[in-house]
Amino acid sequence: MAVQHGWLRGRRPAPYVDIQYRFILRYKIPSRHYFSRTVVPELYEAMRGELVQSLKAAEGGVINLTTDLWTSNHNAHAYLCLTGHWCERVGEASVQRKAGPLNVGVLDIEHTSNNILCCLKEKMREWDESVGQSVTIQFVLSDNAANMVKALTEYGHIHCVSHTLHLVVIKALEKARVVTSLFSKARSISGHVHRSSKASNRLHELQTQLNLPQHTLITDIKTRWNYMFYLLQQLVEQRRAVQIMTQESNMGRAPRIICPNEWRLVSDMLTILSPFEEVTQAISKQSASLSEVIPLLHGLCSIIRSLHVGGLAAGEESEDESDQFMAGDDDQDATVGLGQDVAAESREMLGTAARKLAANLSRELEWRFEPIFANSTFLLATLLDPRYKASCFPNNVDVEALKRTLLLRMELCDPVATPARNTEETPATSSTSVLSFLQKKKSAIPMRTHLPSGDVEAYLADGDISLTDDPVKYWSGKLQCWPNLTRFALQHLSCPLTSVQSERVFSTAGNVVSPQRANLDPSHVEQLVFIKVNADLKNSVGLFEP
């Protein structure tokens, strides 16, 4: 029997223990209504007040928005999220980039463009009243949904780069029958391991025997193309264990076997898709800015173009070749016993499939992102980023005309000369790293060092910063030197290039509106999500720091 305290065995407890015990007995736990009607609303209003103070200090009174729609599977309510992004003046010579959800309200009416626009205006009108001044919306980011695009036309609407990049990869992969067959097998293997405890245990046994990392195969997510990339990476990492597991006869309904030819295709695909994964990671960071779109896409397009140049043009691979390759998919030993000439021909066929995939990706990139390279908003944002300036533009960009546009928008009129630029194409590189490509191109563009006239030319002639430095910190040091140019630059640099942060808000909302709390009032959902997300942002990016 457990040892009992003295006061339980009949002995009088010490005075301080007696006082504590009586206090515990008299304490009454607040009801759930107290938390829902008092604690949560008070905390919500307190955090909202802090957000209002931060918005009052927004540079130039300008903010950018990301928005998204989400419908809960548990309470059948639809929610519209508005996340604000701005730069806050802290003191006389410091600026900090800020972000926070402004609204997670219910939108249970039909999701037409007009209804979405009316809801957005109503919510921003409420914030104008709270802040006590007009808050100017400069840019609004959303996905490519037609109702969203139409609703935000009157604002500076920007398509989510992450969503568009996802469409680029998915559409290119769907055009290659060999690739879709390979992904079908990869998903089958991963699903089999997740559904079968026997297969999962066998995989762990093989990982121990073969001294492989103890990783469980991830599940593919259709709305995130990079999860397919990670799945292929894991299959390559666990190749020996996966081969043994799928060949064993005692595995029941084992998934289809990946043949040796397809393993080479997997390796080729990882090489081709690694730049896309690098760009996806870069644009999904909380610190990612609109100024990074053109440099990253320019580097990505150049690398993917170099991977298929010299190979077969898209469409040269005949349907017969594809069918011949796919006919041997289920036979792992299809190439065993064949002559060297036949094996070489098979390898060449796989190389052709990989180059065709690269060509499809290149065409999708150019088709979906071509308007961006002529968009003055993106061009100006890149020009005003001290990491890039004019060094990472495609060679067909007229920097002189871009500078005139900048001067007009800033109400300046001093015509000045442009920094010297290299008019030759950037040499082809064997590296598939976008960051390495940009670093090489940046170092190949010399900048003039003479003292020019005008803020814009002074900025362009100023010393460059590293690609890993913070551009907002750079402009903080220029507040006294170039106040108008600094304000204009910060309004662009505070704008993200994806709607990821609004989507992350809905990840939190999905945890709040769980099956056990499906009857939560929508107003309580908004308050709980607002408190949770703003608390996370406060801890991660310094939101509302005193």
UniProtKB/TrEMBL annotation:
The record's Pfam families line, in alphabetical order, gives:
Dimer_Tnp_hAT
Domain HAT C-terminal dimerisation: start-end pairs: 457-532
Which Gene Ontology molecular function entries are recorded, alphabetically?
protein dimerization activity
**SUPFAM superfamilies according to UniProt:** Ribonuclease H-like
The cross-references to InterPro entries, in alphabetical order and at most eight, read:
HATC_C_dom, RNaseH-like_sf, Zinc_finger_BED
Hey, what's the signal peptide range on this chain? none
Record protein name field: Zinc finger BED domain-containing protein 4
Species, as recorded: Merluccius polli (Benguela hake)
